[in-house]
Design a protein that fits this description.
The structure holds 2 protein chains of 2 kinds. By secondary structure, chain A is of the alpha+beta class. Helices cover about 35% and strands about 25% of the residues of chain A. Chain B is built from 5 helices and 9 strands; from the N terminus they run βββααβββαβαββα. Classes of the chains: A alpha+beta, B alpha+beta. The interface of A and B includes residues 2, 55, 57, 60 and 62 of A.
Chain lengths: ~180, ~180
């Protein structure tokens, strides 16, 4: 059983592809580590992690987009998740990311986010994108800013509570800046 | 972009079409999930949580290769509910589950018709050698259906993770289905 068509996006040393069963163990490990997962929310137990992961597949089915699994091109190892997230109750579609512990600190989230944002603008026709970041998540704020996103407002998210909304440069803005590469 | 489930089975019974969930089922499923009718499956849910429950049902198909089928009434095209093999992480055993989405679908044997066909699917095509149904002790209609399907209560069976704790407001009973040979007889 599969989702079709699940796009595969090449991004140099990374590949973004649809979720697969083999991604579940590393994702459940991520969710089980509160230091790492608190900024992402979603799942406290392994069964909760399963439901979150399965609901992400359903998200693809409903919207035609969702979280890709980031895998390393060299050995196909799952390194994290990145994509467009817009479940019921969300203010608007957001560009989100998470990286599994062994792959942190290598710029993987940034490269994946640039590729996913480009896909959303060029292939899905999005004209804007946000990222929702919990107050205190300095790493994610730093990455959002590196991607050219700017703080817009703080609001109450339906599942996360108080949340900050960052807005990414739109497709035209990126074009006039010489493309997404300007922010990498 | 349209993303759909691929290669999913589709069955017809006398009065029903049984097929994998589609995006167009969402509104009917949501109306059920936010209603009091969902009280025996962890609800009623908020609209936000309902969306994730529906998404989970779709993702389950991809992760396990099977899942809940949506019941369509042949005569009217109405969406009646969902029935099917169910085994999310944390479940002690493979389950055959069912929900009818509105009261008007009850009392006509639809859930039974679908469950008999999909139990056969689980045994013949998925190779299950046994199946349970987890049912809230207060859910008399569902217990009656389990008994009609030849299930007997199994007091020794393990419960899903998180069920059966002291502070649980509801009690879950495990009903065991007749084994493949017995069900086919």
């Amino acid at each position: 059983m599969s989702l079709t068509p699940a796009p595969v996006l090449e991004a140099g040393r990374l590949r973004l592809r649809g979720p697969e069963m083999r991604d579940f163990d590393p994702l459940a490990e991520f969710f089980a580590d509160p230091d790492r997962a608190w900024g992402f929310g979603g799942a406290e137990t392994r069964p909760d992690a399963w439901r979150w992961f399965a609901s992400n597949i359903g998200h693809w089915h409903i919207h035609g987009y969702g979280y890709f699994t980031i895998e390393m091109t060299r050995d196909a190892a799952p390194a994290g998740l990145c994509g467009i997230w817009n479940p019921e109750g969300w203010p608007e579609p957001e560009l989100g990311w998470l990286v599994f512990a062994p792959f942190e600190g290598q710029g993987i989230a940034c490269e994946a986010a640039l590729r996913a944002r480009e896909w959303a603008y060029e292939d899905l026709g999005f004209t804007t994108l946000t990222s929702n970041i919990l107050p205190g998540n300095a790493r994610s704020v730093a990455l959002a800013e590196r991607l050219g996103a700017r703080y817009e407002r703080t609001y109450q998210n339906v599942t996360m509570g108080e949340d900050m909304l960052y807005r990414h440069p739109g497709p035209r803005e990126l074009d006039s800046d010489g493309g997404a590469e300007a922010y990498a | 972009m349209t993303v759909t489930l691929a290669d999913t089975p589709r069955f017809e019974t006398e009065r029903l079409i049984l097929r994998a969930p589609e995006a167009r089922d969402w509104e009917t499923a949501a109306a059920f999930l936010v209603s009091d009718r969902a009280r025996f499956i962890g609800g009623p849910y908020t609209q936000t949580a309902a969306w994730r429950v529906f998404g989970h049902a779709v993702g389950h198909w991809v992760l396990r290769g099977y899942g809940q089928f949506v019941l369509e009434e042949k005569a009217s095209g109405s969406l009646l509910g969902s029935v099917g093999p169910w085994y999310p992480n944390g479940w002690a055993e493979c389950e055959l589950g069912w929900s009818l989405w509105h009261a008007s679908a009850e009392g006509k044997g639809y859930a039974c018709e679908a469950a008999e066909r999909l139990r056969r699917f689980a045994y013949d095509d998925l190779g299950w050698t046994t199946a349970v149904s987890y049912i809230d002790a207060d859910n008399a209609r569902s217990i009656a259906l389990a008994e009609r399907l030849g299930c007997v209560r199994d007091r020794e069976a393990r419960l899903p993770v998180g069920e059966g704790s002291e502070d649980d407001a509801t009690e879950v009973w495990v009903f065991r289905h007749p084994a493949p040979a017995e069900a086919a007889a």
